[in-house]
Amino acid sequence: MKFPRWRQRKENELEAEIRSHLDEAIRERVERGETPEEARANALREFGNVGLVKEITRQMWGWASLDRLQQDLKFALRVFLKKPGVALVAVLTLGIGVGVNAALFTVFNAFVLKPLPIQDPASLVNLTGVDKQGEKHRLFSYLDYLDLRQQTRVFSDVVAWNKARVTLGDAPPNLGDGDAFAPGYEYLFGQIVSGNYFSALGAEMALGRPFSENEDVRPGEHPVVVLSHSFWKRRFKSDEQIIGRAIELHGFPFTVIGVTAPEFIGVTPDVPSFWAPLMMRDQFFQAGAWGHGRWRTDRSTDVVDLLGRLKDGFTREQAEADTKLLIGRLAQTYPRDGCKTGVRLESAGTLTTINEDLKPVVLGLSLCFGLVLLIACANVTNLLLARAAFRRREIAVRLALGASRWRVVRQLLTESLLLAFAGGAAGTLLADWTLRTLYPIALSSVPIPEGLSEQFSINLSLDWRVFGFTFLLASAAGVAAGLVPALQTSKPDLTSALKDDGPNLGRHFNHSRLRSGLVVLQIAVCLTLLIGAGLLLRNLRRVQTIDTGMTIKNVFAVGVGVSGIDRNNLIRIGELRKQLAERLRAAPGVVSLSEAQHQPLSGGMGGTSVTLPGQATAGDLREARMNFVSADYFDTLNIRLQSGRFFTAEEDRAGTRVVVVSEATARHYWPDANPVGQRIGVGAASQRAPTASIEEERAASAQYPQYTVIGVVRDARSRWIFQKDETFLYLPFPPDLHWIQYLLVRTAGDPTSVMSRIREMGATIDPAVRVTAQRLEDHLVVQMYPFRALSWLSGALGMLALLLAAGGLAGVMSFLVAQRVYEIGVRVALGAQPKDVIALFLKQGLRLTLLGVLLGWLGGAAISRMLAALLVDITPLDPVAFGGTALFLFTVALLACWIPARRALKVDPIVALRAE
Amino acid sequence: MKRRYENRVELLQGTLDLLILQTLQWGGRHGYGVSRAIRIQSGDALQVDAGSLYPALHRLERKKWIKSEWTISDNHQRVKTYCLTAIGKRQLAAERSNWEKLVEAMASILHLAEKESEG
Known about the structure:
The structure holds two protein chains of two kinds. Chain A is built from 26 helices and 23 strands. By secondary structure, chain A is an alpha+beta fold. Chain B is an alpha+beta fold. In chain B, helix 1 crosses helix 3.
């Protein structure tokens, strides 16, 4: 036994003290006339048991519990080494249970708990505007930013930033609503930031200098750029000579003035490639892009995210209240439609904060992951109970020799805690390994542009928070798994435990109700998780096969742009698009071609205010979704007509005020009348700039062009796969109005060959023509990703739960078989057939499974309620998900019972009976 | 075995503590000295065995009522000598008055019992 040094000293002193005591006693006795031998013997007798005196004196030092812990640990280790198999299974089981939770926590930690590597992260907050309806708006206008920064009393600094997607080199052709990537261009994802960004965040530079406030005053004046360390390393091979060099961003020369230190990653999970002054916005967001030219002067053009640095002594709540007043004042001074009237401050010191939207997600996830741990704990409890049944004699002997019950419980708990800590360690390693392996796979599976995924930097390294969490979780798991077996086993029922010598007929069944209960619980929890996974899988299948109301197979969208001077010449682009359309129409395989302002299912879609004459008071505005389309649009996408007619090619661009609406729109606006022939005022067709306030828009609505409904088409999902359009207007293109718009092409078969020739087709029209082509089905991949990811995650979790629960069931069954060897021997001796013996165990196992399934259905009903919001066209109590998973579980349970039950057949009656 | 000693320590605890503090009142003593003082001063009526004495000494030391140091005894031996601390002195006074009250109370009850049996 090794003591720490201070302990050893104390021990030596005690030794010396007792020796001096004996010496004194002997001397006194010798002085009284005893011989030295007598004196020594008498003194020792008088003193008593030296070892015992030492032992109880030591207890006074207050380390007794430490000593006992050491004994317990040593004993526990011996127990495990004797039966390493049991220990290994328990450690692995707990490792999986703790590991999945540790992995979840590591991700949570990376996003929510780890402070960002910036100066004083705790006092940095994110501002989110809130309007009268309670809608949140992340972006603020530049003018609001200036006012906030100037008038605030609670922030020492306010920083404005926004993401900017630009090309390295030439500016790309204008291809659409900003989402398309022009082929042949290298896109960078950077940020435009106010001049105080670097000083406020305390960013260090590896090379050069950051830009300052003075370089962010007048638009376009200081084309300077700071590169991020990772981008500089990746793209410029860590070239130290980069400072002072010019690089072309979006067709505009910028001077590189600095490279950030490697630690500095900004405030977003995707580390920007570069930072440029906010005043360079128009160089990046060029003509036609949101806010171009007017963002500095228009208060309703929201373009920047805001970060605030709290002044010393102000709490977030105080700052929020004060900023709310300020925003309220601004809203009164400059009233406008949908303007912000309040503000929310959230900590920006970490990548994310848990707000009300995220809370249910986090809780739901932790619950599901926690359930896996629960199953693992139940497994280990069962394992310990089984082992305890074989250790009853040992424990009874210890109790009989005077060990207190608490002492025995503590010994057994030490054992289970030891298992749990080993499991926790294994789980931490497992979590770390899994995350390391899965992170790149998960990242590459996310449908985001390649350049962007390279920039993601989520720090999933383990830190003290993860270790602390795992330690606590493992402790809890150890106690949870070990407490019941410890209390059960240490029940002072000495006589029966001491008397019987081993497993026997009909005995030892006192634990079995508890153990059966645990198995039922495991199966129930497992089924709950499986039902969740089943629902999400069904949901994915459903989304994959959903009827969008149109045919998008073999349809692709073509964006046409021009590089060079005519980049923003919409008339020229329109001409070129027309030429390309003609060539495409003549191309072999193309069966239908049409034009649309927005491509369906890309998420973006037009919206407009509409008025319904005669139905509501004048000036009553409604919102509707819409798209400008050519007459062939319905043919290309195979949208079925329900009544009335489509518009014709002659009505296209002819100024005819006719509109085709969806069925839902018709029901919505004219529930009791025939929609065909009704009139509707459409704001988007009025060809004016957007008005600044809702009052102005109301006033203008009297002049909305009046359209006549000529046809009703089937409902579709034009924007999102999971959302039927509530309203949808299909309008013919107005004449003499030029936008960026798309060609939609349907081919008879696979469109790949046509798509591959399309660039060359464009080039033969004009070398400056730039073309993108994208299948509409590709949009679905993006839209379905969350569904797919969810079903992967839940499926993996469900399978893990199933594995653990099946293992638990098999464990209990094999224990029962082992305990009933004698009984089986008797049965076989009396003429029982193999199938009778197997049936005996199968019946028992399946009864437990059935009970578990019934309970699991209840759990499934609860979990399906939680998932209801995610389900598309599936009732939460989907019979396929509930029935299918239960059937699946039954099959696995059957297997888990059958394998150990088969062992019962190998029982030789003679051996079994003689064993007693 | 262990249990027997523990019980006895518990039984004597309050009294033994008082006795130890009392013997240390006029200066430091080592463990054997304390047990000898108790034995002699009680006229051999009280014999404190080592299994009670040392745990008590170490416990009192941990409570900071007494402190210990290694000194050289009259017999030129290195011994661990215990003496009272300021807390210990206060404690001794308190324990003594407690004890006297207890004795008084016991006596009056026993005396009453005597009277009753007489009457």
